[in-house]
Amino acid sequence: MIDPLSVFLLLLSASTPILFAALGELVVERAGVLNLGVEGMMITGALAGFAVAHATGNPFAGFVAAAVAGAAISTLFAALTQAFLANQVASGLALTLFGLGLAAMFGKPFEGVKAPPMPAGPLGINWIVWLGLLAVPAIWWFLTRSRRGLILRGVGENHEAAHALGYDVRLTRLAAIAFGGAMAGIGGAFISIATVLQWTEGMTAGAGWIALAIVVFSNWTAVGVLAGAWLFGGVTVLQLRLQAAGVNVPVQLLSMAPYLATIIVLVLISGRQKYSRRAGAAAPGSLGQNFHALR
């Protein structure tokens, strides 16, 4: 007998890391920046959060540390793309490789160590899950109702016009990149502290790439990101149920999914940028384009 409530709670838990990372990337891309380094920021947050949670015995301190670590490593991407005007796709991929390597090097002492227990929140749901759910309407309101959010979207749609109106394009994008890094860090820490309950190398397992795909498939909307994260969570829960029922899902199929999603994302972004006006796509007009200040 399947308990619908337990299945729903599993879905919420499975979708939370992706939800945090995708919401952060949503804000970044709305500002006109394409950061493919989500996976690297997530694994960095997973390690930093786990290390601090283990050292202090306080999982919430771990999440704060994960947010700081994710934002800190995102500044590398920000420096490359906003100061030195490096290619955003190449810089994002480099950030992912850097984050994975950094976590593998510094994570060795934490292998086999257990994370401190997470206290349950209202209705028995993890507090971080609640935070993720509350972040959806908060980000929706910020992007669609607040002055700062409308400025950010204006920068993403046409950075030259925003600059001509007196808005600081680079500062807006720097803030968005840092926020995206912090959200990705929290998502990674949820995996190590609240899901796996220990540190394992490569434990994000392509979650960052899935988050990137969800942002595109959601048409760059907060509600769409929530739906996509729940869809991914549902697939994960279904996989666990199938395995419990004796139906084996090929490991190779699961391993190739993140990379296949990445290819699809790049193709969709390229196509939507080319045909956005004709097809009515919601892709920001300046997405992936570096800003050259007018002299």
Your description of this structure?
The chain is mainly alpha-helical. 73% of the residues lie in helices and 0% in strands. It has helices at residues 4-30, 38-56, 59-83, 88-106, 127-144, 147-157, 159-164, 169-195, 207-217, 222-244, 251-279.
- Separate helix tally: 11
Please tell me the total number of domains: 1
Kindly report the average pLDDT value: 88
**What is the CATH C level class, in words?**
Mainly Alpha
What is the total tally of β strands? 0
- Please report the distance between the alpha carbons of the first and last residues: 68 Å
Could you give a short account of the major beta sheet? none
Notable traits:
295 residues; mainly alpha; ABC transporter involved in vitamin B12 uptake, BtuC; 11 helices; 73% helix; 0% strand; globular
Summarize the structure.
The protein has eleven helices and no strands.
Layout of helices and strands:
Blueprint: H1 4-30, H2 38-56, H3 59-83, H4 88-106, H5 127-144, H6 147-157, H7 159-164, H8 169-195, H9 207-217, H10 222-244, H11 251-279
Helix pairs in contact: 1-5, 1-8, 1-9, 1-10, 2-3, 2-4, 2-8, 2-9, 3-4, 3-8, 5-6, 5-10, 9-10, 9-11
